[in-house]
């Protein structure tokens, strides 16, 4: 069972040690461990920062528009981002451009940049919406802005104490614990004194303040009972966290012109709910003592990972839509009705408990570039033109990921092809040991295409998608849980069904890593099919009629239960054209940047991350000293960091060029 901080940390105070002085609930040990960002520390401070209407703001900045102008970003006839002034007119992502312009005739609706078949770079084009058959959306402009913002966020935090996790194109988690620790000691020098009797389990004195200045922060209301209790160190810690976040947001606004919203709390789950609580341009603080009342206000299906089938199952099982009512359900009942792991997870989640760590390592698992063709394409030449575009698109992202410096590189490449209802995919390893360049990737992609073509029944083709995956660090770092799992693309590329050709590999044979299979692990939690005992839920399922053309397992998910070497046939609904969904690269996983065409596939993928978190929480349970302490430094905001911008500097200035042979 994952260790879990108690929900209500602020109970009645007991007159403690020494002369009846009231003491803090927290110990000297907990305070000192704040420096090392332990994930189960009750003083922990985590923030989530999310840009408001991000793509829309990017366009506002690009076009130099005043902030009050209504703007929505157009992709073909759909809207993919809407700014807050436009939302006031009732415009949302569900609207078509025509509907939106009816609602607000002054709406500014730039079309996203596109790659164009036969052209050598992405560009903003006035006629893009009329060219769905020859254009492919490019999100490069937004990625570039995202990088700038991320660099500034990092630059705003002291170099030695920061822990920043990019959680999506427009959001980051910050574990502020060690910075907060150092500020606490500066502001309250009494905390530096050794504990009485040198006993770290002694409780701290209470903070010397009875009222905290939260400035403009949105504070989650407290239960009446909590209202009257004096602040303890967790309140002070979160207040300091909130000050840090206010400064970060001010810099993003002053230097880059973007507004964002933030949540400050004791973990990722709560901080993410907090950042969405009041938008735009606000920050919400969820104090520990407010967690119960905060969580009780949510509908079950509004919680992350409970929006899908698992959420519906919980609602049906306990006959309520409200988190509040679930507080009454004992853990044993949850486990009995939902299965052990799911039961524990739901029990914790509704109470705002989440011990997952803020992970500064890059978590990218795969990159996908795809296009559905309307009309279909009919010749190898056309297909190769699209492969060039996909490769350029992917390569630009690889540069961002540090492929040129050999920091991270993919091990496998994968091509999916659709002809009518028939889909095929071929994959192979990417030769290691020399610098990966665009030409090499293109040659590999063409090779895969040639294999598919050689089998016949290829034209007309209605969808092509190219992906790379199996990312590895050039420099070997810590192995996370992934080290115990066979990575998805890697697993597929390393194992071939009889008769499937394989690209020549120049790399030495590597032993295939053993997948960790355990009862009660991820497999059970999100098994594809209901297990015999009916416990497993919410797996990525084949869609009806097999009308899909991408792998059954979202990219980036370990191949947990696919028969070895079987070509995949379902899962991602492609068909974005039919469903009016954004182009292939528009649904990005907020955790690892894997891309999905279909929101359900993305949801399943995110569920998988969560299951992984649970498994990780179970694996690394020892509550303290999970990792070496972060080196302490007295550096102040903005002093050190200077995170280098401009790696792959050419891209910073705009476009990557395609070479047409
Ligand atoms: N996005 C998208 N398709 C989705 C979800 C998100 O294209 N299904 C894009 C949006 O255009 C958005 C960016 O990803 O600008 C970030 O998404 P999100 O944070 O969910 O929404 P925002 O548009 O930023 O709006 P908010 O202010 O609510 O965060
Ligand atoms: Ca956002
Ligand atoms: Ca977001």
From TrEMBL:
Domain UBZ3-type: 582-617
SUPFAM superfamilies reported for this sequence: DNA/RNA polymerases (SSF56672), Lesion bypass DNA polymerase (Y-family), little finger domain (SSF100879)
One term of GO molecular function: DNA-directed DNA polymerase activity
Protein name, UniProt field: DNA polymerase eta
Domain spans labelled UmuC: 46-307
UniProt feature, compositional bias: Basic and acidic residues: 507-521
Subcellular localization, as worded in the UniProt entry: Mitochondrion; Nucleus
Main location class: mitochondrion
Entry annotated with the keyword Transferase: yes
Organism of provenance: Cylindrodendrum hubeiense
Compositional bias segments (type: Low complexity): 632-643
Gene Ontology cellular component annotations, sorted alphabetically: mitochondrion; nucleus; replication fork; site of double-strand break
GO BP term, example: mitotic sister chromatid cohesion
Region of interest called Disordered, as start-end residue ranges on this chain: 498-574, 619-661
InterPro entries in UniProt: DNA/RNA_pol_sf, DNA_pol_Y-fam_lit_finger_sf, DNA_pol_Y-fam_little_finger, DNA_polymerase_eta, Rev_trsase/Diguanyl_cyclase, UBZ3, UmuC, Znf_C2H2_type
Keyword annotations from UniProtKB, A to Z: DNA damage, DNA repair, Metal-binding, Mitochondrion, Nucleus, Transferase, Zinc, Zinc-finger
